[in-house]
Amino acid sequence: MAKAWINGDENAKQMLSRVLKERPLLHLPPPLHRVPLGVSNILEIVGPSPSAKTEILLQVAVNCILPKNRNGVQYGGLEHSVLFLDLDCRLDIYRLSQCLKLKITEANRLQKTKDLQKCVVEVSDHNSSNQREYDDTDVFSECMGRFLYTRCYDSFEFLSALKALNYKLTSNGVHVLMIDNIGAFHSIDRGFSSLPQGNPSRKNIGLQSVFATVVLEIKKLLELRSMIVLATKNVTNQVKSSYSTRASGCLKNPYREYMPLTWQSFVTHRILVRPLDDKRRFGDQVSYSGEWLLPALSISVEFVVCDTGISDSL
Question: What domain of life does the UniProt record list for this protein's source (predicted)?
Fold first, then answer.
């Protein structure tokens, strides 16, 4: 096998095609579109509440569960399954279905327009068998079948959900794991850490041990499956201007970090999102900014949340 690998011959195009097929990049909607993510990347979306963090997850989920094409209609999705672990227990499933229906309807409308233009050119063809059927219901049901949802009310349920994923994901082929919000039980777990240990022989359950187990279980998943992890994290509203933190030439955290070092070192990508001033509104839509902290990019992305999803504000 080693000899066959050494004697192997492929050009750059073949190599890139093979690598991207085995470890595909995930191209995400704004404000995450600046940095493509690959398999085993851990993206942390940081920001005060509200700053559209859950909305970003929903838009990524819609982009993933949509099909690439059906019956000649180009939906532009990735056809990936998504598992959403809701630690805040506040996911608006109606918002997800609304965005999904709008995307499907818009794709069908564009295809109908193209078909009508084609019919005008081909005036001589009046065969009704060539008329395309547009079934939003079947596509919607197919997409929702790719969205898996689990609600966790404490760290014990969160850890149990992670431990069960190896068995639960066997037949589902999940490519994206979403966690909203990773610091939801931080205060409770920190309180457990400060309590006196009743039984010295029993392992103390606290903040450090919980996240050590969380990281361990996610690592096990990534070793067995080609997955990308997206997690949101709430921070306080006292977020200083990120531009003032670059005076020394290196980027410091523009917020107070409270997660254990085990989790911080596990994260490979981090973006800070926050609402801009009221003066920066675009009509009735609030404008938000997104800035990459890891990797550190000097470009700040502005975006707005509308009925159809998230788009650049420029």
Answer: Eukaryota
Instruction: Tell me the domain boundaries of the chain.
Output: 34-123+133-312
Least Cα distance to 190 among 210, 211, 207 occurs for 207
User: 196 — phi, psi (to 5°)?
Assistant: -65, 140
- C-alpha 145/C-alpha 82 separation (Å) is 10
Report the DSSP beta bridge partners of residue 47: 234
| DSSP assignments along 197-233, one per residue | PS-TTSPP-SHHHHHHHHHHHHHHHHHHS--EEEEEE
pLDDT in tens, 128-168: 445 555 567 889 999 999 999 999 999 999 999 998 887 77
Taking the chain, what is the end-to-end CA distance rounded to the nearest angstrom?
Answer: 53
Task: Using DSSP, state whether 264 is helix, strand or coil.
Answer: helix
Let me know how long the chain is. 314
Cβ-Cβ contacts under 8 Å for 188 (sequence gap 6 or more): 154, 155
Rounded-to-integer distance, Cα 32 and Cα 128, Å: 44
- Report the top-level CATH class of 34-123+133-312: alpha beta
Spatial separation of the C-alpha atoms in residues 240 and 253, rounded to whole Å: 9
> Which tens digit of pLDDT belongs to each residue from 212-246?
999 999 999 888 888 899 999 999 755 444 433 44
How many Å apart are CA 272 and CA 79, to the nearest integer?
28
